[in-house]
Structure formats: C-alpha cells, structure tokens
Amino acid sequence: MKYSLTIAFATILILLSFLNLFSEEKPDIEMFEGKLKSMGGEWFIISDGDFFQLNLAPDAFLKENNITFTAKQLLKVEGLIVDEVIDVYLVHINNVIIKLRDNVGNPLWQEEKQIGHHFVIPNKCIGCQLCVSVCPTEAISMIHGRAVIDADKCIDCGICENGNSDYNGCPTNAIKKLE
Fold first, then answer.
1. What is the per-residue pLDDT across 113-152, written as a single tens digit (0 to 9) for each?
2. N- to C-terminal Cα distance for the chain?
C-alpha cells in the first residue's frame, strides 16, 4: 500500500511539473541602452541615468560567441531586472543579436552549476520537484523552474541523486556529485 501511494504521489508531481513547464509565460523583458562600466570584474550599464549590474554569461561562452566589452562602449541589451541586476537575455552588437538565455530565462551555455558537493545540471533538470520533496534538510529549491542546491544547507547525503528506499533518485540524472 505504501509503495502504491508513493508511486501515485510521484506520478501526480511529475504531471504537475510538466503542466508547469508548458504553462510558463515569457517574462516581460526590457531594452536597455547605455554606456558600459567595469567595476570589480563585473559589468554595469548606465542607462537613462540608472546604473545596473549586468548578469551575463560565463567568459568562455562570451568568447565563443565573439562578444567582447570595453569600458564606455555603447551597448543595447534586453533583459529582466531582478534585484537591481539585469539578467541579460539578448545582446545587440554591431547589428547582430546574440541570445544568452531562452524565452523563460534559462541560460543557453552548458556550464554545470556546481554548488557544494552536489550540483544540478540545469539543461537536464525538468523541474519535477521530486528532489525538493525528499531532501531532508530542505536544501533544494526551485528557481526559474529548475532545481538549485543550497550548499549551506546540503549535508551531502546523496538522496537527491541516488534516492533511498522510497525514491529512485533524479529521473533525468540532472543531479551529480562533485568529484
């Protein structure tokens, strides 16, 4: 009986997650145009008198896509403001538009987000939330429809990756242990 309830519960969670994936709306991204400024290894844009930090892609992704920045360069970006930081979705350079994130904000680069001893591979995560429900320390939360592991709360038990007697582990192998 316990096994049947666990399977039923897991099935319901998976169905709800898939519905959530397909119902995600495109966020209202805005256009920003201004001069670039570099401070402390971070890029900022001064647009219409406002000063915003830019959340771009890793340097390797930028280099691979021939994106280079210089201080005082005029630049157009499209993105979403989150806590006074612009999550950049599109960069406009020399009449070319380069996409950094998909329509719902997921990064297009293949960098694995390594947090603590376990980490989530974002492009493998389907947002099913099964790992969230089994984490004994509530170290896993959902951000933009993907699992994220809080290294401060994680005790490295591995249940999210490998499972336990009631859970088989991540169904898409999106959670790995840092070796």
1. 444 578 888 888 999 999 999 999 999 998 888 898 887 7
2. 38
Contacts for 92-95 with beta carbons within 8 Å, 24 or more apart? Answer: 93/67
Name the DSSP class of 165: S
* Pairwise CA distance, residues 155 & 135, whole Å: 10
**What's the pTM value of the predicted model, to 2 decimals?**
0.50
The domains of the chain, with CATH numbers, are: 30-99 (2.40.50), 110-177 (3.30.70.20)
Residues ≥6 apart with Cβ < 8 Å to 5? none
Q: Within 10 Å of residue 118's Cβ, how many Cβ atoms? A: 23
Q: How far apart are CA 19 and CA 72, in angstroms?
A: 45
User: What six digits make up the tokens of 41?
Assistant: 């290894």
Measured CA to CA, the distance from residue 100 to residue 177 in angstroms comes to 27
Measured in degrees and rounded to the nearest 5, phi and psi for residue 28 equal -80, 95
